Structures are given as C-alpha cells and as structure tokens.
Amino acid sequence: TVTLNDDQFENLTLEKHDDGVWVVTLNRPEKRNALNLATIEELITLFSNAPRAGAQAIVLAAKGDHFCAGLDLIEHHDADRSPADFMHVCLRWHEAFNKMEYGGVPVIAALKGAVVGGGLELASAAHIRVADAGTYFALPEGQRGLFTGGGATIRVADLVGKSRMIDMMLTGRVYQGQEAVDLGLAQYLEEGSTFDKAIALAQRTAANLPLTNFAICSAVSHMQNMSAMDAAYAEAVVAGVVNTQPAARERLAAFADKSAARIRPNT
Ligand code: 1HE
C-alpha cells in the first residue's frame, strides 16, 4: 500500500478524515496560490497516489482569499525558459491534472476569489466545483502575452464551449455568480462557506462504493475521448464490473426489500 502524509508536502497541506474524506489545501496564500513547479510536482504526487492510499473523496481547498492565481508568473519570468523547457513544464501540469481527473477519486473544489488562468485549469480538472458570490473566473493569458498550457483548451472549452472560451482568452472577460454556474464553470453557488459545502458533498460522495466512484471519476472522462461506438463498448465493460460487485448486493437487497431510500423530488 501507498501512504501519503502532510509532512511530504510544502506547498500543500493534507488532512485525512476518518470518513475517507481528504482535505488538500493550496498553501501559498502570500502568492495567491500561484502554481510554481514545486506545487505542480506535489499535486502529481498527491493525485498519483491518493487512489491507492485510501482517499474516498478529496476536497481541494485554498488558503487565503483566492483559490488560485494560475501560473507562477514571477517564477516563469525569472526562469526565462526555452520553448522546450516550458513544454516540459506544461507536460507536468497535464500529468497533475490528468491524474486528478482520471484517477478515480472524486475531487471537489471549494472555490473563492480568483480562479484564473491556470487556476481555472486546475479547477476544471475537479469533478465538482463549488463557488460563492465572490468567486470569479477568467483567462488572463491574452493580456499577459501568454497562452493556456494546463489543459484549458480541453477542459475549459468543454465546460463553457469553444466560442466563450476564445472570448475569455481574447478579452479577459470575467464570469461570476449565477451566470458562471449557468455556463458550467461551477455546479454550485453557495451562500455560506464553499469549504463547508464541499465537505458535505465529499462526505455524501464518500458514502458511495469506491469502485462505483472510480468508474464515475475515470470512465466518464475516458469515454468522452472515444468514438460513440467505443464508448458504448467501454461503458458495457465498466458496468459489467461495477454493477456486479459483491459490495453492491447489500444495496440492491435493500432496494428489493423496500428498506432503501426512494428518490423523491426536492421539496
Ligand atoms: C503572483 C501571481 C502569479 C499573484 N504568479 N505571483 N495569472 C494571472 O494573470 C493572475 C495574476 N494575479 C492577479 O491578477 C492578482 O494577483 C490576484 C487577482 C490573483 C490577487 O490580487 P491581490 O491584489 O490580492 O494580490 P497582488 O497584490 O496582485 O499579489 C500578491 C502577491 O502574490 C504578489 O507577490 P509579492 O511578493 O509582491 O507580495 C504577487 O506577485 C503574487 N502573485 N499572482 C506569481 N500568478 C500553464 S500556462 C497557465 C497560464 C496562466 O496561468 S496565465 C495567468 C496568470
């Protein structure tokens, strides 16, 4: 088995709850949680190993007033990178965010303040995003003389559509509030603490069977990359494994004997 502990990380904090919910917190508030290479490496370690280290659901939170200011522009400026160097930096970002999206453990992002540039790329690799009234989304790359390198062309375009993403990149347009939720940038707009809401969602999620969550948080993403024919085939294979898992028998028996909760409309 693999173990992960808080003392392995400098730019993140890791807190493990008894119910299988892990809280991972971006911990560079003085830099608005800008993503330097060291943080990306820690995210790779975390998301590569969490699925085998007992995490049932992960809340991705942030210290300070802002979720994440994106690429560490100062590090990037100081490093004066070659094209090949920066390509490799981007490949490390992809490694981190792909492990997050495809790893099979639900990741719920508790957003606040700026979710911009690479910060939006990070958030869009989470399975659930919770925003509040102060959360705002933007792609400032255009203004900075940059281009997205952390998967926005895939994931942000997937969330809001190609044209809206191009507009965000060209004009620096900021989305927030209900409009951001309506576009799909977040699934929840919370009046209270996004952290508390994310924890509640994580606890609910962690009550599902791990193999079921694994399928939801890896198969759906993989299948989106396939042709419809291949996705239907893969779906059948995944459902074959998941829907016959011994651990599900109890839940099915509870439905059959009418002791399981029924699905009802919200009141
Ligand atoms: C940073 C960064 C950063 C803050 N890299 N150091 N992202 C952006 O273009 C967003 C840039 N940041 C901002 O627009 C603002 O900083 C915030 C809206 C996020 C926060 O504003 P504020 O007024 O609270 O903070 P601040 O005074 O601007 O910054 C506080 C400190 O954080 C300051 O450092 P200090 O040492 O002078 O105190 C800032 O330099 C530092 N800081 N943001 C480095 N991003 C794989 S490609 C991805 C491409 C991108 O992500 S491009 C988008 C980059």
UniProtKB/TrEMBL annotation:
Family matches, as InterPro entries: ClpP/crotonase-like_dom_sf, Enoyl-CoA_hydra/iso, Enoyl-CoA_hydra_C
Segments crossing the lipid bilayer = none
Query: Which is a GO BP term held by this UniProt record?
Result: fatty acid beta-oxidation
Show the Gene3D superfamilies listed in the entry.
2-enoyl-CoA Hydratase, Chain A, domain 1, Lyase 2-enoyl-coa Hydratase, Chain A, domain 2
Could you confirm whether the keyword Lipid biosynthesis appears in this record? no
The record's section on PANTHER family has:
ENOYL-COA HYDRATASE, MITOCHONDRIAL, ENOYL-COA HYDRATASE-RELATED
| Recorded family membership | Belongs to the enoyl-CoA hydratase/isomerase family.
Protein name (record): Methylthioacryloyl-CoA hydratase
Species the sequence originates in = Cognatishimia maritima
